[in-house]
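From the pipeline queue, job 12 of 40. The input is one protein chain; the requested action is below.

Action: predict structure.
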Amino acid sequence: MADLKYYIFFFTLFIIAPATGVVGGYYKKLSNFIFGLSIFFTCRLSESINFVSHEFYRGTSRGFEITLVDCLCISLFIISIFRNKFKDIVFFPPGSTLMVMYFIFSMMSIINAANITYSLFELFKMIRMYFVYWVFYNYINSLDDIKVFFKSMSIVICYIFISVLWDKYIGGRYQARGPFPHQNSLVMYMQIFAGISFAHFFNSRKFAFKWGWLSAISTMLIIMTLSRGGLLCYAISISIIYFLSIINNFSKQKVILTLYMLMALFGIGLKSIGTLYERFTTAPKESAHTRVYLAKSAVNMANDKFFGIGLNNFGVKVNKPFLYSKDSPRYEEKGFKEGLVETSYLMIAAETGWLNLLVFLILLSSFYYRNIRMLIKYRKNNYYPLLLGVFGGLTAIYVESSLEWVLKQTTNSYQLILVFSILSVLYTKKILDEPVVNTKEAI
């Protein structure tokens, strides 16, 4: 049965994906469907294949993984070539230089790796992520493609909601996670889509009801994860979106929507306050102490080696016989074994060095900068809610990444790459300058 799985995978990768790409190059509806599927499968990795799998290793990558998103992007790559005939292909999309620098410094860290194979797992994932970014950037060329994104996003939200309901009420899971590997992965993934939904709900003239339901579902999903950091970051995101919406265009409709929101929050609060209070007040002190000691271990690693201790090697070197965790009171205990540091930023510094962390932060900031520039330029545009929702969502993800390392998980990396590609397209291809957007309700 396992062999059949690999046969199906290779047939899909080398036959179906290229053939579908060739056909999709001639039929717009098929290419839209493939694009929509690639967005959908960013939240679901059950169909992925892991080569040289090390499932029990506690690291950010556990094998040479290939997913359906990668297969679908092969089709989109061919479609982009057919559609653009090479003349409009951008071989180095915005951000490529920083991404390459980040990759090179990560690769340099291998000289200090205890297990080179683990590093190669993560390097392979980086290459895949850049390929996906390149494909999305070159595929998205019009507002019609953005509308496909909106439809796919709506389907994804509904699918995740059904999965979480099943997980919580049929599976009996206390902290629901749906199709994701962990509840923190779910809450970080939902930050972007929840932000976009809320921004449209609060700013859309004709479709407030539709976006209101999506916003409510997204909010319930985040609450059901019972993630303390995720809830805090979501509150920050929603507050930013709310106040910028009011500042940009104050209206009677927004006053009414504010009253509805307050009533809805009151109702949700009555239903969930007990569980949330218990979650915030009964968290074990040992968990907080472990976070502190893991952070100290990460700093010790980053200070010890200029290029870090080796990409995807934190799970190895945080334990004996290495001395980076010697400050932990449990270090001398028999069977001592630590996990991963609970922040993406210290993880990067520990594994690849402080300099590479700086490159990564500049990379994140570059997309944030583009987002802000467009928020100012297109504040009267019908696609302003998209830009505003992304801004709030990115803020939440950037803050939450100081509390969790899940941004490095495949699902969350895919979504971030998708958002980065959309921001780059809107910023460089200027498709929001089309006059029709200002004269007709676009979404």
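Job complete. The mean pLDDT is 88.
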